[in-house]
Amino acid sequence: MKAGVRALGVAESYRESTSHLAGTVVRASRVVDGFVFDTCTVGGRDATETICAMVDRLDREDVRYLLVAGIAPAWFNVLDLHAIQGRTDLPTISVTFESSPGLERAIREAFDDPDAVAARLDTYRAQPDRRPVTVNGETVYVRAVGIDDDAAADVVRGFTPEGGRPEPLRVARLAARGLVDAE
């Protein structure tokens, strides 16, 4: 991957009812090249729209990929990767860092309202399956829309200088935590 290729990584940190999302533009050469911030509702259904609005507000034609940390930030505010990719026109890659049996049971247990459960499960089930990807001797789990699985794995590897967390997501997570700590 060329050193100047840029990815936007979006990660979150939350306390109480608000989740702070941080977006970080990082070059493949590991140079941080921009930030964008927003909030979404913990336990809500607005994370997909919030991420799309962040990309719109950032307004960077040089960003080639969008990486998001996880599929259900802010306590099951499930992301619709297809909607994000369709609106932003960026290959969209969700990266998670732990093996799991999936979120269906956890979503059912987290909400009493059958409509809230059904809406989240519909969105969750519509997403591509997770695929394990080995990065620097660690395993991460990747879902990709707008890019094939092998190319998505190459992007994740290309933006991960060490460990298993891609640099755009690592820096975005630090920025989001900083916002929450500053409150």
TrEMBL record:
It comes from the Archaea. Pfam families: Endo_dU. Gene3D superfamilies: archaeoglobus fulgidus dsm 4304 superfamily. InterPro entries: Endo_dU. Belongs to the UPF0215 family. This is UPF0215 protein GCM10009030_31940. It comes from Haloarcula pellucida.
